[in-house]
Amino acid sequence: MLMEECGVFGTYLKEGNIAPSYVVEGLMALQHRGQEAAGVSYTKGEKIESFKELGTVGAIFNKKTLSNMKGKISIGHVRYSTKGTPDITGAQPFTANYANSSFSIAHNGQIENSEKLKNELEKKGIIFLTDSDTEIVLHLLVSKLRKSPDKWTLEEISKIIFENIGPSYSLIIMFKNRMIAIRDKKGYRPLSFYEDEHGYYFSSEDCGLRFLSPNMKKIRDVKPGEAIEITEKGVKNVQYETQKYSHCFFEHVYFSRPDSNVFGRNAHQMRERMGEQCAIENPVDADIVVPVMESGLSAAMGYSKMSGIPVEMGLIRNRYIGRTFIHPEQTERKIGVKRKLTPIYEVIKNKRIILVDDSIVRGTTMTEIVDLLRQYRAREVHVRISSPAVVSTCSWGVNIPDKKELIASQKNVKQIEKHINADSLGYLSLKGVRKILNFDHENYCLHCFIKNNLEE
Amino acid sequence: MLMEECGVFGTYLKEGNIAPSYVVEGLMALQHRGQEAAGVSYTKGEKIESFKELGTVGAIFNKKTLSNMKGKISIGHVRYSTKGTPDITGAQPFTANYANSSFSIAHNGQIENSEKLKNELEKKGIIFLTDSDTEIVLHLLVSKLRKSPDKWTLEEISKIIFENIGPSYSLIIMFKNRMIAIRDKKGYRPLSFYEDEHGYYFSSEDCGLRFLSPNMKKIRDVKPGEAIEITEKGVKNVQYETQKYSHCFFEHVYFSRPDSNVFGRNAHQMRERMGEQCAIENPVDADIVVPVMESGLSAAMGYSKMSGIPVEMGLIRNRYIGRTFIHPEQTERKIGVKRKLTPIYEVIKNKRIILVDDSIVRGTTMTEIVDLLRQYRAREVHVRISSPAVVSTCSWGVNIPDKKELIASQKNVKQIEKHINADSLGYLSLKGVRKILNFDHENYCLHCFIKNNLEE
Amino acid sequence: MLMEECGVFGTYLKEGNIAPSYVVEGLMALQHRGQEAAGVSYTKGEKIESFKELGTVGAIFNKKTLSNMKGKISIGHVRYSTKGTPDITGAQPFTANYANSSFSIAHNGQIENSEKLKNELEKKGIIFLTDSDTEIVLHLLVSKLRKSPDKWTLEEISKIIFENIGPSYSLIIMFKNRMIAIRDKKGYRPLSFYEDEHGYYFSSEDCGLRFLSPNMKKIRDVKPGEAIEITEKGVKNVQYETQKYSHCFFEHVYFSRPDSNVFGRNAHQMRERMGEQCAIENPVDADIVVPVMESGLSAAMGYSKMSGIPVEMGLIRNRYIGRTFIHPEQTERKIGVKRKLTPIYEVIKNKRIILVDDSIVRGTTMTEIVDLLRQYRAREVHVRISSPAVVSTCSWGVNIPDKKELIASQKNVKQIEKHINADSLGYLSLKGVRKILNFDHENYCLHCFIKNNLEE
Amino acid sequence: MLMEECGVFGTYLKEGNIAPSYVVEGLMALQHRGQEAAGVSYTKGEKIESFKELGTVGAIFNKKTLSNMKGKISIGHVRYSTKGTPDITGAQPFTANYANSSFSIAHNGQIENSEKLKNELEKKGIIFLTDSDTEIVLHLLVSKLRKSPDKWTLEEISKIIFENIGPSYSLIIMFKNRMIAIRDKKGYRPLSFYEDEHGYYFSSEDCGLRFLSPNMKKIRDVKPGEAIEITEKGVKNVQYETQKYSHCFFEHVYFSRPDSNVFGRNAHQMRERMGEQCAIENPVDADIVVPVMESGLSAAMGYSKMSGIPVEMGLIRNRYIGRTFIHPEQTERKIGVKRKLTPIYEVIKNKRIILVDDSIVRGTTMTEIVDLLRQYRAREVHVRISSPAVVSTCSWGVNIPDKKELIASQKNVKQIEKHINADSLGYLSLKGVRKILNFDHENYCLHCFIKNNLEE
């Protein structure tokens, strides 16, 4: 499964001091964007305090923790980490103390020119206490603005960031008495903004703002190249000139919660249209369309609508999975994927199946699923992937493995089909993606679907 | 949500001593039948040991716990409790010590004549250490068979149980060197049996046996009125004469995992057919069919197939729910159901919606959902329930509230429609249920759908 | 270390409903009497509810747990278990349901005629759901009094218990609207009683009553052979005729908290006098007296006072012990007792040491300690034990191992001296014990110090 | 209670890769120096990894955590924090990434010129991600040595640290393939060094080395002004010229474990001598000497020896304390200190008591103890403090409150005596301290005992 690194949330209250509670509530809704660690920074008098821990939002925060966290301004972060061992050092937000003041940053994204920036900063004698790209932003701001963070203007901050830091970034920065949100000029990662009578809120996805009110019409995106500042006086913004955007298409394919609107498009509806287009491009005669729950469900519905072949729940996801209790050395049985996904025999047996999933990364899981369906007597298994084949890795925040591990980088469609033992295999084409995006495809990053900058 | 009380699992190994590991693995798959407590009994030399705790299977058992639990014979239990406060005293299996030996019981069901049996036993000076019906079974066996449990024959045990204990029960009893499974003559609750080269296994639902092998064809039901004994010599059974069965229809409506085959019918497919029949009986012109995830999904698919109106994911269930962090006293906002279910605005707005769920109990949640859809600008909300209205409580193991709390016991369909503020409301009829069950409906218990023994 | 099985606490409030909070507070103070499990029973309307869990009182109970536990009457129990695997089934109090009512029992002790009682009860068709002696009491009362527990009189209850159940027992029984405390006629285990303006309280040791008030003069013992009943009307008691008592001398040696007054004697002061008498009987020329902290401290002070040789803290107990992190397979080093007890080199080196401990059971730990002192250059190590040699096992509640494992049952003093590699070894004599107890020694059980009913 | 901030431990193994296990074992023994957080850094191939968490060593580390932590070189840290809210950001060790390499630091102490150093570094554009003094060391080294940490020589490192950083510091620095330990020229905090056939070890106190071997004679101090480097080639050291030392006297008074040898003196023995001297200076006619366990025990023994008045255990510390279960709003009773310390009535009543403790900070606890003893009928209570009155705060690592909160800064001895309601009060004098330290007192820091640089 491809995973992204992080979700961010920020709250600036017009009145009251429970901003951290709002942030935690929002992080709960963004939990799907990162489960390794979570953290919150908040104002406490003239200081900024932080609370970070390994684990899920629900496990870390509770009434007691929150009772100690009061403030008017707060930002938070959920983190997914690519490293094997969970490490608290990388948990955000990061707070920097400088010139008798401080500021705190929560960042979603991955900075493409991080090596270059690090080298330049190191030449100035700057060290890095974490492995995180985000730390660069803190140092860069200070090294350019040698004065109290409280005196940095929105214009100064945004100029430094937009002119130096390569995408991708959706940033929320809090100071003692204001908050700034910034989104890179390419708009790789989403970032939403909402204001109501109680305060101002930023959230990676607008699903994080759902708990606030039914009147969601006032939600808008922080625009690519835009920086928004919230102070006592209200909202102020700076808009940098931008050209083409590079919205990450994988936000539509997999990351976002289905009810989120990302880049102006609802995630569930996009997936349905990807399923429809995949059906147009890869028709096959079959009895039922079976989604790989839960991520494939929207796309399977689209495939079904277009093909007229009914969706059936042929694979059930077990909500209560955990460790395996019978260990491999104790038995010749292979349990593996069977504990997570179980086929419904009555639905599967003797059927010609169109199996719909959102992507294939290494091919291991898909091979197991096809095998499982055959054990349950599926007559034919036709695999349909509702996005193009992933052939390249990513420098803007998606944790795609090395090319060597990407099956589509090593094999062509026929070879993959054979590898996973499918009766047929079809991907959504890049042309199909462009068609779905209408004339907007030039504003999307489709880099991971493109090999050596040459299309298939 | 209606809830059932418990799932049971048993393992008798032909070789090796990791029967408890098999039981825990099986309980993982039965977790949906009870999350309050879990327990395992197992042989340790000539003794039977137990390990029980409050919590989910995954939280209670781990490598370390299991390393101390070795034995050839083991039974286990997951418990759902109707009481507010979790209480370890009622956690099963129950182990009885008698005449220098012992036996242990895991029970799914609720005994209809428990009061009468308790009174008779109390007259003999017997006390009850728990509130559980199951304890009656232990006392009854001993009070009738005044000798070491090891000398009780299958015939003696089954005669006492079948002739005295009213349904419902699916029981697994373990002794130092054998295991007996018994299912009441009416067959209220399911119980599956499987044998392979390693051992014998009993499970409340056959989904609990899925991890053992792809060759599931050898699974069979313990029949109503049947008692099966496993010893070193193999399998022996006793079959009591039975007449009509009383399979609990709610196993099809809600309890069973969709991939389970219960009473010879696949749960998912049954739900689809209930949705289809509901569509035939309650047609309405609309734009989309929206399931109340996850339980309503199968029925919604059936409704869609029959009506030709497409299923759409208009409501998303948040996988990561937990406590609320913003407390009511802090804000005038009502969060409630919004955190669990979030509508997709783009799917909902301006649409005429057919909302499909499996049942309405008190009506509270459904009222909130309809309200939520209207906030998201649904044009019309037509509620369709894929089972008949629940009007009576249950004495055979389903935790249905008092009639006073059952909305359908207090109001008619029109009144409920108004109460939940739906544009229209339609239930599956009892006639429809009979039709779906074909000529088999007389073998089902439909008691909770019938008021005063008079149909609507 | 010898360990006893359990502590009990009971509260009957004249006003208010937080009796369970009092019980938990009391159990905290009795924690040293059992750390495996803890439980509380309490009235909830007409019912008795229970909450029991494995673990220490502090780990089990908290604000949240207690907020659900309200009642006027409550009893509680801390359990030490002799079995390797912790088992929740044996956690007390035990609650019995009978004849539409119920009662709950907490028991400290071990019933000497339990096998006989069990056999008799089993002949009546009674089974045992636990391994605990305590369950016998429940069954016995019901089998003799076939009516609602609410109608049992104090006279009936105490007659059945005193005439049938062999010691040892200090029992607290709660009903829906009263509480009864009973102590066996021999007075093996302690039990204290206290009344103030808020309510009535029973506690295994009076240290459990310390939190209630500074005015502790009103504390009295429940007398051997006495049963005390608390109802709305106040206190009522029944006193059975008793002859000699059999107070467990090990309560003085080790079990009780130093500040407790047990059998009319302060535990710390008794230990001091045992140390003094041991000094009289086993004089030796040495430089310092070193206690094995913490249990040996009082006795060492006594030894020092009498001998004039100063006490020195030559061994420090590490408060923060836990698991070992360097595993034996990884190194040839033996860590063992060194992590718990560390000698102070400057105090130990070149010194002739009198090492004072309260008892030797198997001899393993003492051997390690002597070895450790020699590694730290002690010149001589003279071991002094402030109680007589333990040579027999116990049937009244002390968890003494089999004779085969008791070093003093297998070896004489000279042999033990050699085994533990001491320069000399001296025990307090039985005569010395009698002298300390003055003319009261016939009211004490000294059974574990006596081999085959013949003194050394 | 005064508390210090931290303990450090380091291991460089000659063979094998379980250095982190040794470090965790050592941290267990240093747990008394900090319970808020613990952490370990270790080599993993060419990288340095860290694992830090809030909580005690025993709660954080286990077999599973350690199984992922393998390396030849490892350092660790236990942290006590002065802030109310535990904060993971300040947990050590700190690891800095620079110039494609990294190094990690564990620090015990507090840097007196930290503000000046921070200002200088901030002028160079350096920010601080934590509130910890320790971070200064990382930045300072890099800002002075602009090359890969692997190329920094022992001479360069020690020169920068000794010439720039004010005391107090006992530092352990690890690199990919070597370890350096440095102690400030004044020797405020202790640091021990040990070598055996398996490796090299540094520990804040030598009690942390106790588990390694009985042969502790090879332990030596890292000297004030000394830096020791461990590489594959063995040990190398640099010694800076030093003049007078400033050993922290509070290490003797309270911090160190009694079995530790700190500044060449055993902690327990020093405390005894302080008690003796206090007796000489503050004689009083009384019946018994009662220590405030556990910290006052050694001093009480000294007082007793000198005065000839016997030590008695009149106050027992409850090992199992935790939260209070009966809340103030529920009862007029004040529980407070009574749950932690309980007097023994039989020891206390009618006695003239000399109560010995190591220090009085705010006076709150002492007032409660005296009150408690009077409730238990003590005839007289004479308080003796085995160190001089604490009148000034500390800049070198001891968490002493503001002068306003220090009772001895606000009141004279007579006034304090009255405040705590003692019959008499006596402190050890500064002259007495000097006498105990013989001619070595000029090598100690006694700053917190001195008001305005003028002695009492």
The CATH class of the largest domain in chain A turns out to be Alpha Beta
CATH architecture of the largest domain in chain A: 4-Layer Sandwich
Number of domains of chain A: 2
The rounded Rg of chain A comes to: 23 Å
Describe the structure.
Four copies of one chain form a homotetramer. Chain A is α+β, with helices and mostly antiparallel strands and 456 residues long. The first copy, chain A, folds into two domains: 6-245, Aminohydrolase, N-terminal nucleophile (Ntn) domain (Glutamine Phosphoribosylpyrophosphate, subunit 1, domain 1); 266-437, Rossmann fold (3-Layer(aba) Sandwich), CATH 3.40.50.2020. Chain A has 14 helices and 23 strands. In chain A, strand 9 and strand 10 form a beta hairpin. In chain A, 57% of the residues are buried. The model of chain A has no long low-confidence stretch (mean pLDDT 90).
Summarize the structure.
The structure is a homotetramer of 456-residue chains. Chain A has helices spanning 19-29, 57-60, 63-67, 114-123, 134-144, 154-164, 250-255, 267-281, 297-307, 345-348, 364-375, 407-410, 413-419, 430-436, and strands at residues 7-13, 37-44, 47-54, 73-79, 94-98, 101-108, 170-174, 179-183, 192-195, 199-203, 220-221, 226-231, 234-239, 247-248, 261-262, 265-266, 288-291, 315-317, 341-343, 352-357, 380-385, 424-427, 444-445.
List keywords for this structure.
homotetramer, 456 residues, alpha+beta, Glutamine Phosphoribosylpyrophosphate, subunit 1, domain 1, Rossmann fold, 2 domains, 7-stranded antiparallel sheet, 6-stranded antiparallel sheet, 23 strands, 24% strand, elongated, Ntn_hydrolases_N (chains A, B, C, D), glycosyltransferase (chains A, B, C, D), EC 2.4.2.14 (chains A, B, C, D), PurF (chains A, B, C, D), iron (chains A, B, C, D)
